Amino acid sequence: MKASLRPCRHLYLYKWPSRSHTITPTFTLPPNPMEPTGTVVFTTVGRPQYGFDLFSLALDPNLINHASESRLTDGTSLNFNGHFLDENHTLVFVSERSGSPRIYQVRSGDTKPEQLLAVPGSLFHDRPIVKNGSLYFVSAHERPEKPFISWSAVYSAGLDGKAVVRLTPPGVVDYSPAISPSGKFIAVASNGSRPWGGEFHELYTDIVVFRQAEPEKRVVVCERGGWPTWSGESSLYFHRQADDGWWSIFSVNLAEDFQISGVSEAPHRITPPGVHCFTPAAMQGSKRIALATRRKGSKFRHIEIFDIDSRKFYPVTESLNPNFHHYNPFVSPESGFLGYHRFRGESSTGESTIPHLDPVMSPVNELRMLRLNGSFPSFSPAGDLIAFNPDFEAKGGLKIVKSDGSKSWIVLKGRTAFYNSWSPTEKHVVYTSIGPIFESVRATVQIARISFDPSDLDDDREDIPADVKILTREGTGNNAFPSCSPDGKSLVFRSGRSGNKNLYIIDAVDGESDDGIGIRQLTDGPWIDTMPCWSPDGKVIAFSSNRHNPDNVDAFSIYVIRADGSDLRRVYVAGCEGSGDVDRERINHVCFSADCEWLLFTANLGGVTAEPISIPNQFQPYGDLFVVRSDGSGLKRLTWNGYENGTPAWWYGWNEVDVGRLCLGSGTGTGDGDKLTGEFDEPLWISSDL
């Protein structure tokens, strides 16, 4: 999509019932026997290695010799997206220390931050700004009327405890608020009321401005732009991808009566091609912008200052931390200090070990949620152990961890393994896929039965011996995603042996023989059937498939089928049969509740919650966890953040999981978790080879 360089003005008037509202917290309601229960363990792509803290440094007026940087936050959890209130390092920021992104404040000399606000019912807060005694922020607690629309909207609340006010009109999506120096005007990156089209490399939001006192009178001052920042009361900078492919900073000037007369000029490109520039922060009283850059020949994101008059870049962080990524700069009101967030460093005080399991706040009272440092978890029959793959891209093999996170063992190493299923009847048997993930139907991937002696799981061992038995025949192509039947006798899995990816059922002990005994085909067709899960009662198998539109390999829906191949049906989640929304579903990793009444899965139904360009690489930043009844009703969202959440496992009880012990002792490097090294990628879709 090409950038629009013409002047733009669209005035929209919105009405909504009330400027303030009260929200009932969904996570403090009394237990409801009709609600889903148990423990959900899942993966968040990349996040365990972030280790973000906020840092600042005093700016040299000549932009040559800056002071050394100081850490502003305490090394607990993730801390990011800060905003200075003054020149004394009073700071508001987002932290995930409570199990969800919430807003905190810290003053110079404080040892611990103070939580400022938690909107009842909200498990996502972002981009906080304090101006004239009010806190402005993004929250995602109000569900849109339709799927595939982001829940993100801008709110304000008085620091004196006044009610939360929604500034974004109903049905509209707003990201990345910026407040003018006087506090009179608010700029946002807005998707308006348009449905999300599936994009995330660039969201194609518009820059919208409104008066703080009249949020219903909104003006689109520029089509296509994100992350606005004010320079004075009449100029805005923002980022977008230019026609030549380089992410760049643009500006637009507003007339004093812009709500009536419109924008006086077309957007103007500020930064030159040849360097990617993102997330600008204007320095008040000068024509300078702090921004994040990606340059040719470097894989790291750094903070620089761009002088508009001289058109010169002044590096800031590359000389300090050349091999760290630095994100989302912010500047103090008088431009004396520059802030940003980055990996805190291996030698810094604070959390330095990644816990195996990290508690995450749940929106459902009786449903516990734990983030795993790994992928494809599967619970043992007693729920006391979890099998998982630590890193399927680096031949990470298979590990087992106690469900309280206190101890782990290596079961298989030096081989690529993914997608595990613990035998419901054998505490010493785990099934997995061995071979490369995300490959063609002809790639060699095998279903393996991994058995070990449970008595070897003692505290003195790191590795335990295991027997690996391959159940699928050589030359049968890509066999993956096993799920064991409740009686432990059979496995359902996906195979590409026919040239299509369909489902098969195999003997769980002996596998298939050369003459075809021990295996039968369950589904057949020129589409993709994948990621099956056998229901706990053994009656049906749920799986993801694009059989309703085989030509679209980006849209998958839930199907269920009996093990004998009968009663195939589709579970419609995003809408009723025949609606346009249901064929946009991208649903994977389906699993059942204990009573088979609920289905848990990861999906794209909630759109994108934050600007993906402002965070490290996420392959699918729209991926969030949901549950729905087996008939497609009662949809509930479980996760909110800017990351990709997936590969869930559902244990049917939660008393056995000692949540109180989770993470204890591991944050300081004395536990059993992996070392926090800050190894994560920039968005892989940003190319400097232009």
Structural topology:
Layout lengths: L9 E4 L24 E7 L7 E7 L11 E2 L7 E6 L6 E5 L6 E5 L7 E4 L7 E7 L2 E6 L13 E6 L6 E2 L6 E7 L5 E8 L13 E6 L2 E9 L3 E6 L3 E7 L5 E7 L4 H4 L6 E2 L5 E9 L4 E8 L6 E6 L4 E4 L10 E6 L5 E7 L9 E2 L2 E4 L6 E6 L2 E5 L5 E5 L8 E5 L5 E5 L4 E6 L6 E6 L11 E7 L13 E5 L8 E6 L5 E6 L6 E6 L11 E3 L7 E6 L5 E6 L11 E6 L6 E3 L16 E5 L5 E6 L20 E6 L6 E2 L7 E7 L22 E2 L15
Parallel strand pairs: 2-29
Antiparallel strand pairs: 1-16, 2-50, 3-4, 3-26, 5-6, 6-7, 7-8, 9-10, 10-11, 11-12, 13-14, 14-15, 15-16, 17-18, 18-19, 19-20, 21-22, 22-23, 23-24, 25-26, 27-51, 28-29, 30-31, 31-32, 32-33, 34-35, 35-36, 36-37, 38-39, 39-40, 40-41, 42-43, 43-44, 44-45, 46-47, 47-48, 48-49
Describe this structure in words.
It is globular and about 80 Å long. Helices cover 1% and strands 40% of the residues. Strand 17 (226-231) and strand 18 (235-241) form a beta hairpin. It has 690 residues and is mainly beta.
Descriptive key words:
690 residues, disordered N terminus
Low-confidence stretches: 1-7, 17-31, 663-671
Helix/sheet category? mainly beta
Overall pLDDT, averaged?
91
Number of helices: 1
Measured by DSSP, the beta-strand proportion falls in 35-45%
Classify the oligomer: single chain
Produce a short descriptive summary.
The protein is mostly beta strands. Mean pLDDT is 91; it is low at 1-7, 17-31 and 663-671.
